[in-house]
């Protein structure tokens, strides 16, 4: 066959492929080179709940743990009223659940925040009067806060810093000013500060 004839056949096949399109085998599966991660669970914007309350002048955010495996704001409120004799009940302004007593990462708003009154969480007048008390359910000498608890805590602290103009150096643990291990040896304080650094 002459060269011209071979060129004609070659051009014929190219034309047929072009006109018919490329056929994809039915069992063809594309190779994914980037692993697909499940969507990140977002923490709801806490401001939609908290913006409705007036906020007085606060200077500190004080982090605590409950030192118990389970619990919720209602249980702590009952204990503080009945056993501690505190008229206003729950000593903290907020409680963040661990899934045992209340939802994992659920932020419970206490009566002391709603009414903007002193906490009963610090054992030191200065920090009860000017400190917003946040208690994470759990004993962080024995375990760690859950991922959801830390995400909710970061969101809440970020909101409170912005709303109340609280600098990062005033985000403190209970043990910073009191003879206690609270919020436990395993509480990731510096990770919290890194996530909420402001001013």
Walkthrough of the structure:
The chain is an alpha/beta fold and 199 residues long. The chain has a single domain (48-196), classed as Peptidoglycan recognition protein-like (Lysozyme-like, 3-Layer(aba) Sandwich). It is 34% helix and 11% strand. It has a five-stranded mixed sheet with strand order 3-2-4-1-5. Mean pLDDT is 83; it is low at 13-42.
Offer a quick outline of the entry.
With 199 residues, the protein is an alpha/beta fold.
Write the layout of secondary structure elements.
Blueprint: H1 3-20, H2 47-50, E1 60-65, H3 73-82, E2 94-96, E3 107-109, H4 111-114, H5 125-130, E4 131-136, H6 147-164, E5 171-173, H7 189-196
- The CATH architecture name reads 3-Layer(aba) Sandwich
Q: Which range does the strand content fall in?
A: 5-15%
Structure summary, number of beta strands: 5
Rough shape? globular
Rounded Rg: 29 Å
Structural class by helix and strand composition: alpha/beta
**Main sheet properties:** 5 strands, mixed
CATH superfamily: Peptidoglycan recognition protein-like
What attributes does this structure have?
single chain; 199 residues; alpha/beta; Lysozyme-like; five-stranded mixed β-sheet; 5 strands; 11% strand; globular
